[in-house]
Amino acid sequence: MDKFVIAGGARLKGAVRVSGSKNAALPIMAACILAQGKTVLKNVPRLFDIEILSEILGKLGVSVKRLPNSDMEIQVIDDSKCVADYDLVSKMRASICVLGPLLAKRHEAKVSLPGGCVIGVRPIDLHIKGLSAFGANITVEHGYVVARAKKLKSAEIYLGGMFGSTVTGTANILMAAVLAEGTTIIENAACEPEVADLAGFLNKMGAKIKGIGTHKLLVKGVRRLKAVTYSIIPDRIEAGTFMVAAAVTNGNITIENCIAEHLTAVIDKLREIGVTVNKKKNSCQVIGTDRIKPVYISTLPYPGFPTDMQAQFCSLLSLADGISVITERVYPDRFMHVAELNRMGANIKKEGESAVIVGVKKLSGAQVIASDLRASAALVLAGLVAEGQTEITRVYHIDRGYEKIEEKFNKLGARIQRKLDKKLIVVEEK
Ligand code: EPU
Protein backbone atom coordinates (compact mmCIF):
# COMPACT_ATOMS: atom_id res chain seq x y z
CA MET A 1 0.00 0.00 0.00
CA ASP A 2 1.37 3.42 -0.97
CA LYS A 3 2.02 6.44 1.18
CA PHE A 4 2.97 10.01 0.33
CA VAL A 5 5.96 11.75 1.83
CA ILE A 6 5.65 15.48 1.34
CA ALA A 7 8.33 18.08 1.98
CA GLY A 8 6.35 21.20 2.75
CA GLY A 9 7.04 24.82 2.03
CA ALA A 10 7.03 25.18 -1.76
CA ARG A 11 4.96 27.93 -3.37
CA LEU A 12 3.22 26.28 -6.30
CA LYS A 13 3.56 27.96 -9.69
CA GLY A 14 2.73 27.07 -13.29
CA ALA A 15 -0.06 25.43 -15.25
CA VAL A 16 -1.91 22.19 -14.61
CA ARG A 17 -4.50 20.37 -16.71
CA VAL A 18 -7.61 18.99 -15.04
CA SER A 19 -8.82 15.47 -16.00
CA GLY A 20 -12.34 14.42 -16.91
CA SER A 21 -14.93 14.35 -14.14
CA LYS A 22 -15.09 11.12 -12.13
CA ASN A 23 -18.63 11.74 -10.95
CA ALA A 24 -19.87 12.49 -14.48
CA ALA A 25 -17.97 9.57 -16.05
CA LEU A 26 -19.39 6.94 -13.66
CA PRO A 27 -23.14 7.33 -14.47
CA ILE A 28 -22.36 7.98 -18.14
CA MET A 29 -20.49 4.65 -18.31
CA ALA A 30 -23.49 2.96 -16.65
CA ALA A 31 -25.83 4.61 -19.16
CA CYS A 32 -24.05 2.69 -21.93
CA ILE A 33 -26.10 -0.33 -20.76
CA LEU A 34 -29.00 1.44 -22.52
CA ALA A 35 -27.26 1.81 -25.91
CA GLN A 36 -27.09 -0.31 -28.98
CA GLY A 37 -23.64 -0.30 -30.62
CA LYS A 38 -20.22 1.06 -29.67
CA THR A 39 -20.05 4.14 -27.48
CA VAL A 40 -16.82 6.15 -27.42
CA LEU A 41 -16.29 8.29 -24.34
CA LYS A 42 -13.58 10.95 -24.33
CA ASN A 43 -11.91 12.59 -21.35
CA VAL A 44 -12.48 9.58 -19.04
CA PRO A 45 -10.05 9.88 -16.10
CA ARG A 46 -7.76 6.96 -15.24
CA LEU A 47 -8.89 6.27 -11.71
CA PHE A 48 -9.46 3.35 -9.40
CA ASP A 49 -13.23 4.03 -9.22
CA ILE A 50 -13.48 3.97 -13.02
CA GLU A 51 -11.69 0.57 -13.01
CA ILE A 52 -14.17 -0.81 -10.49
CA LEU A 53 -17.15 0.25 -12.55
CA SER A 54 -15.47 -1.19 -15.67
CA GLU A 55 -15.20 -4.51 -13.83
CA ILE A 56 -18.86 -4.39 -12.73
CA LEU A 57 -19.94 -3.59 -16.29
CA GLY A 58 -17.77 -6.48 -17.55
CA LYS A 59 -19.68 -8.87 -15.28
CA LEU A 60 -22.91 -7.41 -16.65
CA GLY A 61 -21.94 -8.39 -20.21
CA VAL A 62 -20.62 -4.97 -21.21
CA SER A 63 -17.22 -4.73 -22.86
CA VAL A 64 -15.17 -1.74 -21.63
CA LYS A 65 -11.92 -1.02 -23.46
CA ARG A 66 -9.40 1.68 -22.74
CA LEU A 67 -8.26 3.45 -25.93
CA PRO A 68 -5.19 5.73 -26.21
CA ASN A 69 -5.28 9.03 -24.33
CA SER A 70 -8.33 9.28 -22.15
CA ASP A 71 -10.78 7.61 -24.54
CA MET A 72 -12.87 4.57 -23.70
CA GLU A 73 -14.98 2.26 -25.88
CA ILE A 74 -18.06 0.61 -24.37
CA GLN A 75 -20.36 -1.95 -25.97
CA VAL A 76 -23.03 -4.32 -24.69
CA ILE A 77 -22.13 -7.91 -25.67
CA ASP A 78 -24.60 -9.90 -23.58
CA ASP A 79 -27.69 -8.29 -22.11
CA SER A 80 -28.90 -11.30 -20.14
CA LYS A 81 -26.91 -10.52 -16.98
CA CYS A 82 -28.51 -8.47 -14.21
CA VAL A 83 -26.48 -9.00 -11.03
CA ALA A 84 -23.94 -6.58 -9.51
CA ASP A 85 -22.23 -8.45 -6.67
CA TYR A 86 -21.38 -7.28 -3.17
CA ASP A 87 -17.63 -7.89 -3.71
CA LEU A 88 -17.41 -5.09 -6.26
CA VAL A 89 -20.26 -2.81 -5.19
CA SER A 90 -18.89 -2.67 -1.63
CA LYS A 91 -15.66 -1.21 -3.06
CA MET A 92 -17.47 1.74 -4.58
CA ARG A 93 -20.83 3.17 -3.52
CA ALA A 94 -21.49 4.82 -6.88
CA SER A 95 -21.89 1.34 -8.44
CA ILE A 96 -25.57 1.70 -7.52
CA CYS A 97 -25.83 3.77 -10.73
CA VAL A 98 -26.27 0.51 -12.73
CA LEU A 99 -29.66 -0.06 -11.06
CA GLY A 100 -31.71 2.38 -13.21
CA PRO A 101 -30.29 1.38 -16.61
CA LEU A 102 -30.47 -2.38 -15.85
CA LEU A 103 -34.12 -2.09 -14.86
CA ALA A 104 -35.00 0.06 -17.90
CA LYS A 105 -33.19 -2.06 -20.48
CA ARG A 106 -33.13 -5.58 -19.05
CA HIS A 107 -36.30 -5.31 -16.92
CA GLU A 108 -34.50 -6.83 -13.97
CA ALA A 109 -31.70 -5.81 -11.65
CA LYS A 110 -30.11 -7.30 -8.57
CA VAL A 111 -27.60 -4.87 -7.15
CA SER A 112 -25.88 -5.18 -3.80
CA LEU A 113 -26.81 -2.45 -1.31
CA PRO A 114 -23.73 -0.29 -1.11
CA GLY A 115 -23.90 0.42 2.63
CA GLY A 116 -22.49 3.46 4.37
CA CYS A 117 -18.94 4.77 4.42
CA VAL A 118 -16.77 7.07 6.50
CA ILE A 119 -18.57 10.18 5.28
CA GLY A 120 -21.98 9.02 6.50
CA VAL A 121 -24.87 6.55 6.40
CA ARG A 122 -25.74 7.20 2.74
CA PRO A 123 -29.18 5.60 2.25
CA ILE A 124 -30.73 4.91 -1.17
CA ASP A 125 -34.39 5.31 -0.21
CA LEU A 126 -34.90 8.04 -2.83
CA HIS A 127 -33.54 5.80 -5.62
CA ILE A 128 -36.01 3.09 -4.57
CA LYS A 129 -38.91 5.53 -4.22
CA GLY A 130 -38.26 6.96 -7.70
CA LEU A 131 -37.86 3.62 -9.47
CA SER A 132 -40.95 2.20 -7.75
CA ALA A 133 -42.99 5.10 -9.16
CA PHE A 134 -42.43 3.67 -12.67
CA GLY A 135 -44.34 0.58 -11.59
CA ALA A 136 -41.30 -1.54 -10.78
CA ASN A 137 -41.49 -4.10 -8.01
CA ILE A 138 -38.53 -3.42 -5.72
CA THR A 139 -37.53 -5.40 -2.65
CA VAL A 140 -34.46 -5.61 -0.49
CA GLU A 141 -33.38 -9.23 -0.05
CA HIS A 142 -30.25 -10.57 1.63
CA GLY A 143 -28.41 -7.26 1.20
CA TYR A 144 -29.43 -6.79 -2.43
CA VAL A 145 -31.89 -4.41 -4.08
CA VAL A 146 -33.96 -6.57 -6.39
CA ALA A 147 -35.98 -4.67 -9.01
CA ARG A 148 -38.29 -6.08 -11.66
CA ALA A 149 -40.65 -4.50 -14.19
CA LYS A 150 -42.04 -5.86 -17.46
CA LYS A 151 -42.23 -2.30 -18.65
CA LEU A 152 -41.74 1.09 -17.06
CA LYS A 153 -44.58 3.61 -17.13
CA SER A 154 -43.95 7.34 -16.86
CA ALA A 155 -44.43 8.94 -13.46
CA GLU A 156 -44.34 12.18 -11.49
CA ILE A 157 -41.49 11.85 -9.05
CA TYR A 158 -40.46 14.18 -6.22
CA LEU A 159 -36.85 13.54 -5.22
CA GLY A 160 -36.50 15.51 -1.98
CA GLY A 161 -34.88 14.03 1.11
CA MET A 162 -33.68 15.33 4.47
CA PHE A 163 -30.49 16.65 2.91
CA GLY A 164 -31.90 17.96 -0.36
CA SER A 165 -31.90 16.11 -3.63
CA THR A 166 -29.74 13.17 -4.62
CA VAL A 167 -27.12 13.21 -7.35
CA THR A 168 -26.83 9.49 -8.10
CA GLY A 169 -30.54 9.03 -7.32
CA THR A 170 -31.43 11.59 -10.01
CA ALA A 171 -29.06 9.81 -12.40
CA ASN A 172 -30.74 6.45 -11.73
CA ILE A 173 -34.28 7.82 -12.19
CA LEU A 174 -33.24 9.69 -15.33
CA MET A 175 -31.68 6.59 -16.89
CA ALA A 176 -34.91 4.69 -16.26
CA ALA A 177 -37.20 7.53 -17.41
CA VAL A 178 -35.59 7.78 -20.87
CA LEU A 179 -37.00 4.35 -21.82
CA ALA A 180 -40.27 4.57 -19.83
CA GLU A 181 -43.56 4.85 -21.70
CA GLY A 182 -44.91 8.43 -21.65
CA THR A 183 -43.60 11.65 -20.11
CA THR A 184 -41.94 11.57 -16.70
CA ILE A 185 -41.58 14.64 -14.51
CA ILE A 186 -38.75 14.64 -11.98
CA GLU A 187 -39.19 17.41 -9.39
CA ASN A 188 -36.40 18.51 -7.07
CA ALA A 189 -33.92 16.79 -9.34
CA ALA A 190 -30.26 17.35 -8.51
CA CYS A 191 -28.85 19.94 -10.92
CA GLU A 192 -25.14 19.28 -10.39
CA PRO A 193 -23.08 19.68 -13.61
CA GLU A 194 -22.45 15.90 -13.52
CA VAL A 195 -26.21 15.23 -13.74
CA ALA A 196 -26.51 17.78 -16.57
CA ASP A 197 -23.63 16.03 -18.37
CA LEU A 198 -25.38 12.67 -18.08
CA ALA A 199 -28.59 14.23 -19.44
CA GLY A 200 -26.65 15.76 -22.34
CA PHE A 201 -25.17 12.34 -23.11
CA LEU A 202 -28.58 10.66 -22.99
CA ASN A 203 -30.05 13.31 -25.32
CA LYS A 204 -27.19 12.75 -27.77
CA MET A 205 -28.13 9.05 -27.69
CA GLY A 206 -31.68 10.00 -28.71
CA ALA A 207 -33.40 10.62 -25.36
CA LYS A 208 -35.81 13.51 -24.96
CA ILE A 209 -34.95 15.35 -21.76
CA LYS A 210 -35.93 18.97 -21.12
CA GLY A 211 -34.97 21.23 -18.23
CA ILE A 212 -31.34 20.06 -18.12
CA GLY A 213 -29.41 21.88 -15.38
CA THR A 214 -32.60 22.76 -13.45
CA HIS A 215 -34.51 21.12 -10.60
CA LYS A 216 -37.35 20.02 -12.89
CA LEU A 217 -36.65 17.47 -15.60
CA LEU A 218 -39.23 16.49 -18.21
CA VAL A 219 -38.44 13.21 -19.91
CA LYS A 220 -40.37 11.88 -22.88
CA GLY A 221 -39.66 8.16 -23.13
CA VAL A 222 -38.24 6.73 -26.37
CA ARG A 223 -38.05 3.13 -27.60
CA ARG A 224 -34.32 2.88 -28.08
CA LEU A 225 -31.07 4.74 -27.69
CA LYS A 226 -28.09 4.66 -30.04
CA ALA A 227 -24.39 4.58 -29.25
CA VAL A 228 -22.55 7.90 -29.72
CA THR A 229 -19.20 9.60 -29.17
CA TYR A 230 -19.23 11.95 -26.18
CA SER A 231 -16.72 14.00 -24.22
CA ILE A 232 -17.01 14.11 -20.42
CA ILE A 233 -16.84 17.51 -18.65
CA PRO A 234 -13.70 18.46 -16.69
CA ASP A 235 -13.63 17.54 -12.99
CA ARG A 236 -14.75 20.63 -11.04
CA ILE A 237 -13.58 19.20 -7.72
CA GLU A 238 -10.08 18.48 -9.03
CA ALA A 239 -10.02 22.05 -10.39
CA GLY A 240 -11.23 23.39 -7.04
CA THR A 241 -8.54 21.40 -5.23
CA PHE A 242 -5.81 23.04 -7.36
CA MET A 243 -7.41 26.42 -6.65
CA VAL A 244 -7.02 25.77 -2.93
CA ALA A 245 -3.44 24.57 -3.54
CA ALA A 246 -2.62 27.97 -5.08
CA ALA A 247 -4.32 29.72 -2.17
CA VAL A 248 -2.77 27.69 0.66
CA THR A 249 0.80 27.88 -0.71
CA ASN A 250 0.43 31.55 -1.70
CA GLY A 251 1.26 30.41 -5.22
CA ASN A 252 0.14 31.25 -8.74
CA ILE A 253 -1.49 28.40 -10.70
CA THR A 254 -3.26 28.41 -14.03
CA ILE A 255 -5.81 25.61 -14.08
CA GLU A 256 -6.50 24.43 -17.62
CA ASN A 257 -9.52 22.48 -18.84
CA CYS A 258 -11.62 24.14 -16.16
CA ILE A 259 -15.20 25.38 -16.46
CA ALA A 260 -15.24 28.30 -14.02
CA GLU A 261 -19.04 28.54 -13.98
CA HIS A 262 -19.17 25.09 -12.34
CA LEU A 263 -17.17 26.56 -9.45
CA THR A 264 -18.97 29.83 -8.81
CA ALA A 265 -19.54 29.18 -5.07
CA VAL A 266 -15.92 28.06 -4.58
CA ILE A 267 -14.51 31.06 -6.47
CA ASP A 268 -16.76 33.40 -4.51
CA LYS A 269 -15.38 32.09 -1.19
CA LEU A 270 -11.78 32.19 -2.42
CA ARG A 271 -12.25 35.86 -3.33
CA GLU A 272 -13.80 36.59 0.06
CA ILE A 273 -10.71 34.96 1.62
CA GLY A 274 -8.52 37.40 -0.36
CA VAL A 275 -7.39 35.10 -3.16
CA THR A 276 -7.29 36.45 -6.74
CA VAL A 277 -9.16 34.38 -9.32
CA ASN A 278 -8.96 35.38 -12.98
CA LYS A 279 -11.51 33.47 -15.04
CA LYS A 280 -10.55 32.80 -18.66
CA LYS A 281 -12.31 30.91 -21.44
CA ASN A 282 -11.27 27.34 -20.57
CA SER A 283 -8.98 28.06 -17.66
CA CYS A 284 -8.65 29.92 -14.40
CA GLN A 285 -5.64 31.63 -12.87
CA VAL A 286 -5.52 31.58 -9.08
CA ILE A 287 -3.07 33.75 -7.12
CA GLY A 288 -2.63 33.36 -3.36
CA THR A 289 -2.48 36.02 -0.70
CA ASP A 290 -0.22 36.92 2.27
CA ARG A 291 -3.24 37.14 4.57
CA ILE A 292 -5.96 34.48 4.44
CA LYS A 293 -9.19 36.05 5.73
CA PRO A 294 -11.58 33.87 7.76
CA VAL A 295 -15.00 33.06 6.25
CA TYR A 296 -18.28 31.26 7.01
CA ILE A 297 -19.27 28.46 4.65
CA SER A 298 -22.27 26.12 4.45
CA THR A 299 -22.11 23.21 2.05
CA LEU A 300 -25.25 22.80 -0.05
CA PRO A 301 -26.41 21.02 -3.18
CA TYR A 302 -25.35 22.73 -6.44
CA PRO A 303 -25.10 25.67 -7.13
CA GLY A 304 -24.24 25.97 -3.41
CA PHE A 305 -20.79 25.34 -2.00
CA PRO A 306 -19.88 21.67 -2.74
CA THR A 307 -19.46 19.20 0.11
CA ASP A 308 -16.63 17.69 -1.95
CA MET A 309 -14.59 20.89 -1.33
CA GLN A 310 -15.29 21.12 2.41
CA ALA A 311 -12.22 19.20 3.62
CA GLN A 312 -9.84 21.18 1.37
CA PHE A 313 -11.22 24.46 2.73
CA CYS A 314 -10.68 23.19 6.29
CA SER A 315 -6.96 22.97 5.46
CA LEU A 316 -6.91 26.43 3.90
CA LEU A 317 -8.87 28.12 6.68
CA SER A 318 -6.63 26.50 9.32
CA LEU A 319 -4.15 29.20 8.32
CA ALA A 320 -6.61 32.10 8.26
CA ASP A 321 -6.18 35.23 10.30
CA GLY A 322 -9.21 34.65 12.57
CA ILE A 323 -12.05 32.20 13.17
CA SER A 324 -13.95 30.47 10.34
CA VAL A 325 -16.96 28.17 10.52
CA ILE A 326 -17.81 25.48 7.95
CA THR A 327 -21.23 23.88 8.30
CA GLU A 328 -21.82 20.58 6.49
CA ARG A 329 -25.41 20.42 5.26
CA VAL A 330 -25.02 17.48 2.88
CA TYR A 331 -23.06 14.92 4.94
CA PRO A 332 -23.16 16.12 8.58
CA ASP A 333 -20.54 13.52 9.63
CA ARG A 334 -17.99 14.26 6.92
CA PHE A 335 -15.26 15.53 9.26
CA MET A 336 -12.78 12.65 9.52
CA HIS A 337 -9.99 14.96 8.35
CA VAL A 338 -10.38 17.28 11.37
CA ALA A 339 -8.49 15.10 13.85
CA GLU A 340 -5.67 14.54 11.34
CA LEU A 341 -5.37 18.27 10.55
CA ASN A 342 -5.21 18.94 14.29
CA ARG A 343 -2.26 16.52 14.48
CA MET A 344 -0.56 18.90 12.05
CA GLY A 345 -1.12 21.86 14.36
CA ALA A 346 -4.53 23.06 13.15
CA ASN A 347 -7.04 24.23 15.76
CA ILE A 348 -10.41 22.86 14.61
CA LYS A 349 -13.32 21.88 16.83
CA LYS A 350 -16.28 19.93 15.59
CA GLU A 351 -19.51 21.39 16.94
CA GLY A 352 -22.45 19.32 15.67
CA GLU A 353 -22.61 19.78 11.89
CA SER A 354 -19.95 22.49 11.94
CA ALA A 355 -16.20 22.80 12.12
CA VAL A 356 -15.04 25.85 14.03
CA ILE A 357 -11.60 26.67 12.69
CA VAL A 358 -9.35 28.96 14.70
CA GLY A 359 -6.61 30.09 12.35
CA VAL A 360 -3.01 29.26 13.35
CA LYS A 361 0.23 30.82 12.12
CA LYS A 362 1.65 27.58 10.71
CA LEU A 363 1.06 23.86 10.29
CA SER A 364 3.79 21.35 11.03
CA GLY A 365 4.49 18.11 9.17
CA ALA A 366 3.28 14.92 10.87
CA GLN A 367 2.30 11.31 10.19
CA VAL A 368 -1.39 11.26 9.26
CA ILE A 369 -3.91 8.81 7.84
CA ALA A 370 -6.19 9.47 4.87
CA SER A 371 -9.76 8.34 5.62
CA ASP A 372 -11.54 9.09 2.35
CA LEU A 373 -11.01 10.74 -1.01
CA ARG A 374 -11.53 14.43 -0.18
CA ALA A 375 -9.98 14.05 3.29
CA SER A 376 -6.81 12.76 1.56
CA ALA A 377 -6.81 15.81 -0.70
CA ALA A 378 -7.10 18.05 2.38
CA LEU A 379 -4.11 16.33 4.00
CA VAL A 380 -2.01 16.70 0.86
CA LEU A 381 -2.85 20.43 0.78
CA ALA A 382 -1.90 20.76 4.45
CA GLY A 383 1.32 18.82 3.80
CA LEU A 384 2.25 21.20 0.97
CA VAL A 385 2.30 24.18 3.29
CA ALA A 386 3.36 22.53 6.56
CA GLU A 387 6.79 23.06 8.04
CA GLY A 388 8.90 19.91 7.63
CA GLN A 389 7.81 16.49 6.40
CA THR A 390 4.31 15.03 6.24
CA GLU A 391 3.65 11.32 5.75
CA ILE A 392 0.18 10.35 4.58
CA THR A 393 -0.77 6.67 4.68
CA ARG A 394 -3.70 5.00 2.87
CA VAL A 395 -3.33 7.27 -0.16
CA TYR A 396 -5.23 4.71 -2.22
CA HIS A 397 -8.20 6.89 -1.29
CA ILE A 398 -6.76 9.74 -3.33
CA ASP A 399 -6.13 7.45 -6.32
CA ARG A 400 -9.88 6.82 -6.45
CA GLY A 401 -10.58 10.37 -7.57
CA TYR A 402 -7.43 12.26 -8.57
CA GLU A 403 -5.48 11.18 -11.65
CA LYS A 404 -1.65 11.29 -11.28
CA ILE A 405 -2.06 13.70 -8.40
CA GLU A 406 1.55 13.76 -7.17
CA GLU A 407 2.89 14.14 -10.74
CA LYS A 408 0.59 17.09 -11.29
CA PHE A 409 1.56 18.73 -8.00
CA ASN A 410 5.27 18.07 -8.51
CA LYS A 411 5.18 19.79 -11.92
CA LEU A 412 3.93 22.86 -10.06
CA GLY A 413 6.95 22.73 -7.73
CA ALA A 414 5.65 20.48 -4.94
CA ARG A 415 7.87 17.78 -3.44
CA ILE A 416 5.70 14.69 -3.04
CA GLN A 417 7.16 11.20 -3.12
CA ARG A 418 5.04 8.07 -3.42
CA LYS A 419 6.51 5.21 -1.37
CA LEU A 420 5.46 1.70 -0.63
CA ASP A 421 4.32 1.43 2.99
CA LYS A 422 5.44 -2.11 3.92
CA LYS A 423 4.28 -1.73 7.54
CA LEU A 424 0.74 -1.10 6.41
CA ILE A 425 0.64 -4.18 4.18
CA VAL A 426 1.59 -6.41 7.12
CA VAL A 427 -1.05 -4.82 9.34
CA GLU A 428 -3.81 -5.11 6.74
CA GLU A 429 -3.00 -8.69 5.71
CA LYS A 430 -3.41 -10.06 9.22
N1 EPU B 1 -29.63 10.73 0.47
C1 EPU B 1 -30.76 10.22 1.05
N2 EPU B 1 -31.45 9.24 0.37
C2 EPU B 1 -31.06 8.80 -0.85
C3 EPU B 1 -29.91 9.34 -1.44
C4 EPU B 1 -29.20 10.32 -0.75
O1 EPU B 1 -31.15 10.62 2.15
O2 EPU B 1 -31.73 7.92 -1.41
C5 EPU B 1 -28.88 11.77 1.19
C6 EPU B 1 -27.41 11.39 1.43
O3 EPU B 1 -27.25 10.61 2.57
C7 EPU B 1 -26.76 12.75 1.53
C8 EPU B 1 -27.53 13.60 0.52
O4 EPU B 1 -28.80 12.92 0.37
O5 EPU B 1 -26.96 13.29 2.82
C9 EPU B 1 -26.88 13.75 -0.83
O6 EPU B 1 -26.51 12.47 -1.33
P1 EPU B 1 -26.38 12.16 -2.88
O7 EPU B 1 -27.25 11.00 -3.21
O8 EPU B 1 -26.58 13.41 -3.66
O9 EPU B 1 -24.89 11.69 -2.99
P2 EPU B 1 -24.31 10.61 -3.99
O10 EPU B 1 -25.03 10.69 -5.27
O11 EPU B 1 -24.23 9.30 -3.31
C10 EPU B 1 -22.57 12.18 -5.13
C11 EPU B 1 -21.09 12.15 -5.34
C12 EPU B 1 -20.39 12.47 -4.03
C13 EPU B 1 -20.86 13.85 -3.55
C14 EPU B 1 -22.38 13.86 -3.43
C15 EPU B 1 -22.94 15.21 -3.05
C16 EPU B 1 -20.88 10.55 -7.10
C17 EPU B 1 -20.36 9.24 -7.54
N3 EPU B 1 -20.69 10.85 -5.83
O12 EPU B 1 -22.84 11.16 -4.17
O13 EPU B 1 -19.01 12.52 -4.32
O14 EPU B 1 -20.27 14.15 -2.32
O15 EPU B 1 -22.99 13.45 -4.68
O16 EPU B 1 -22.60 16.16 -3.99
O17 EPU B 1 -21.37 11.32 -7.90
C18 EPU B 1 -16.72 12.25 -3.92
O18 EPU B 1 -16.53 12.40 -5.14
O19 EPU B 1 -15.79 12.27 -3.08
C19 EPU B 1 -18.07 12.06 -3.44
C20 EPU B 1 -18.34 11.53 -2.25
In which range does the helix fraction lie?
25-40%
Structural class: alpha/beta
Oligomer: single chain
Portion in strands: 25-35%
**Count of alpha and pi helical runs:** 15
Q: Can you identify the CATH class of the largest domain?
A: Alpha Beta
The CATH topology of the largest domain is given as UDP-n-acetylglucosamine1-carboxyvinyl-transferase, Chain
Query: Low-confidence spans: pLDDT under 50, at least 5 residues?
Result: 426-430
Overall pLDDT confidence: 95
Q: Architecture of the largest domain in CATH?
A: Alpha-beta prism
Number of domains: 2
The kinds of small molecule bound in this structure are: uridine-diphosphate-2(N-acetylglucosaminyl) butyric acid
Main sheet makeup: 4 strands, mixed
Please report the total strand number as a whole number. 26
Over the alpha carbons, how many angstroms does the gyration radius reach? 21 Å
The CATH superfamily of the largest domain bears the name Enolpyruvate transferase domain
Strand order of the largest sheet: 24-25-1-26
- State the shape: globular
- State the end-to-end distance: 14 Å
